[in-house]
Specification:
With 589 residues, this protein is α/β, with parallel strands linked by helices. It is built from 20 helices and 24 strands. The longest helix has 37 residues.
Length: 589
């Protein structure tokens, strides 16, 4: 008995100690969060200040106040710069006489969508046109980072550095053989000759139609890229294409000899160049300011007035519910659109789309709320890197659709995937199911047996009806000849330029143009911008993101190269019902 009480006492003591320790950690975390959120460090903006622009590994769609991380080393909140803030900061700095230039530092593994890169590339060009310099130093340059670096007055590469300038390549991973080895068959229902999102599960290579469309839009993306880089560097497009096609540039010395960089030097060399540019002595110090600090201490002048324009972000895969940076939740979007519609101060809506589509049901629920909103105010769509399939479904009704030339859009098609896992369950695992039903279709959707011909007919009819609804919406709002709809639709993916030529898009431009159009249509000269949907508070966001990030890192570490395969499996498992989705597994490098 004494031993019993001894163990009980020891366990209780351990529990109390652990609770106190966890409580202390929680309290210190809260204090750190509060201090970080409440701090107002005023960094001095001196004369001849140089903005230090070092983007993260990727660039999120939403601005800094919407995305929060937590640094356990300093107990401080850290915010990622989003595209919107980067553009606003560059515009503000262009007219600030204290800012002389930008030092652009690009991480080795930097990447972002090409539409996002074009927005920043063009903003850097406007900054340069205001009479200020841009300087770049890098250890490694890729097509992604060079898109931004090309805008600089001086581009330098480390002597032992390298440059990858070999064109774009799009690949698709196929899982048909792996599924067959597992005893799994995928039953496909689709409408759209080019609707290739189903191909990885039923083929082992691209269909001719898919190869045709991918070849078309990858070359279109590269044409836009080469034209922009050639314009920034003062080079001929044909010369750049030759360098890429033959991979003539690999080393820093070759990059210089072909004119892609200006000098080969270590970082101190670019510092000396900037000092000379500013008329400083070699012993003088350069005054740098981080882009984030400049944005915080010198925010752009806000539009004034009581009337507002709402910016509604639709970034990620469209589904019925859920949350996160990579999900467009119909539940959340419907609530946000209703708030926008009921707010008498909001006079126009800009819908910013960066989505490959997803659930047909979720897309339709969002569409209906936008349709009701269009009756009360102008709706302008701004397309980001991708606005395809379900992403285009919710865009079609806009008064005006604005896209970048390298936006991926269209993919007007529908599909459904139903797995037949009988081979896996019966033959490999020895698992069987049995039951009773009230009618012929009572067990519709079972995955432990192949579908009957009657069941297949039902699913195909659902797909056909959904496709008819999709195309009817496009024809209702877009200037397209009904006789030509199938030459544009059928699941085919287009770039922004091709989409404009076919009536799917109205204008080529960025989000700033969309806002200007919204203000013009609403007759507003002064207004405020308000972002939707509202995200969770920073502390909840920190907890959720930390859990998610930890799980992601563990999966990456354990699976290695197979992590991409896991992502594809997860995407398929998330699919519910009829899908409006582009071939989301095409990777462009």
């Amino acid at each position: 008995m004494k031993q019993f009480f001894k163990f009980v006492f020891a366990s209780a003591l351990g529990f109390i100690f652990a609770s106190i320790l966890l409580g202390a950690i929680f309290i210190f975390t809260l204090i750190g969060l509060a201090n970080s959120l409440g701090k107002e460090e005023k960094a001095e903006i001196k004369e001849k200040t140089i903005l230090h622009f070092k983007p993260g590994m990727g660039i999120p769609e939403r601005s800094r106040d919407d995305v929060v991380d937590f640094d356990f080393n300093t107990f401080e909140m850290k915010a990622d710069q989003g595209l919107a803030e980067i553009l606003a900061t560059l515009k503000n700095a262009s007219s600030d006489n204290r800012i002389e230039g930008i030092y652009l530092e690009l991480p080795i593994a930097f990447s972002a969508g090409y539409s996002t890169l074009k927005e920043i590339h063009d903003a850097l060009e406007r900054f340069h046109d205001s009479g200020k310099f841009i300087a770049v130093h890098a250890n490694v340059l890729t097509e992604w980072s060079y898109y931004l670096a090309s805008t600089a007055d001086e581009v330098r590469l480390s002597p032992s550095g390298s440059m990858l300038f070999n064109g774009m390549y799009a690949d698709v991973w196929f899982y048909k053989e792996a599924l067959e080895k597992l005893g799994v068959k995928v039953q496909v229902f689709k409408h759209g000759t080019f609707k290739s999102a189903v191909e990885p599960y039923i083929l082992d290579r691209m269909s001719p139609e898919n190869r045709q469309q991918v070849e078309r839009y990858v070359n279109s993306l590269f044409d836009t890229y080469l034209n922009d880089v050639a314009g920034s560097r003062g080079m001929e497009v044909t010369k750049l294409r030759e360098i890429a096609d033959k991979m003539l540039v690999r080393s820093a010395a070759q990059a210089k000899s072909y004119g892609l960089v200006d000098e080969v030097s270590y970082e101190d060399g670019i510092f000396s160049w900037m000092k000379d540019k500013l008329g400083l002595e070699e012993d003088d110090d350069l005054h740098f300011m981080e882009m984030e600090d400049y944005a915080k201490n010198n925010p752009p002048k806000k539009h004034i007035g009581e009337e507002r324009i709402a910016i509604l972000y639709a970034s990620g895969v469209i589904q019925e519910d859920g949350n996160g940076q990579d999900v467009v939740s119909a539940e959340q979007m419907v609530a946000a659109i209703r708030k926008i519609r009921d707010d008498k101060k909001i006079k126009a809506l800009v819908l910013r789309i960066n989505s490959p589509g997803g659930s047909a049901l979720a897309s339709d629920l969002i569409y209906r709320e936008l349709e009701l909103t269009r009756e009360k105010m102008p709706v302008i769509v701004s397309m980001g890197d991708v606005a395809a399939s379900g992403g285009y479904y919710i865009a079609a009704l806009a008064d005006t659709i604005v896209a970048q030339p390298n936006t991926i859009t269209g993919s007007i098609g529908v599909f459904a995937l139903i797995p037949d896992m009988q081979g896996l369950l019966n033959d490999k695992l020895g698992i069987r199911s049995d039951g009773v039903g009230t009618g012929e279709y009572s067990d519709l959707g079972r995955i432990d047996r192949p579908m009957t011909e009657g069941e297949k007919a039902i699913f195909q009819q659902l797909v056909e009806e959904t496709y008819a609804d999709f195309t009817s919406i496009v024809l209702k709002y877009r200037p397209i000849d009904p006789a030509a709809i199938d030459t544009i639709a059928e699941g085919r993916v287009w770039t922004g330029l091709d989409a404009r030529d076919r009536g799917l898009v109205d204008l080529i431009g960025g989000v700033d143009l969309a806002i200007e159009l919204a203000a013009g249509k609403a007759g507003l000269e002064s207004y405020r911008l308000v972002a939707y949907p509202h995200l969770e508070n920073p502390f909840s966001q920190f907890l959720n993101r930390s859990k998610k990030d930890m799980a992601t890192e563990l999966m990456r570490e354990e699976l290695g190269a197979e992590y991409e395969v896991f992502l594809q499996y997860r995407n398929v498992m998330r699919m519910k019902g009829i899908q409006m989705r582009m071939p989301f597994d095409v990777r462009i490098e």
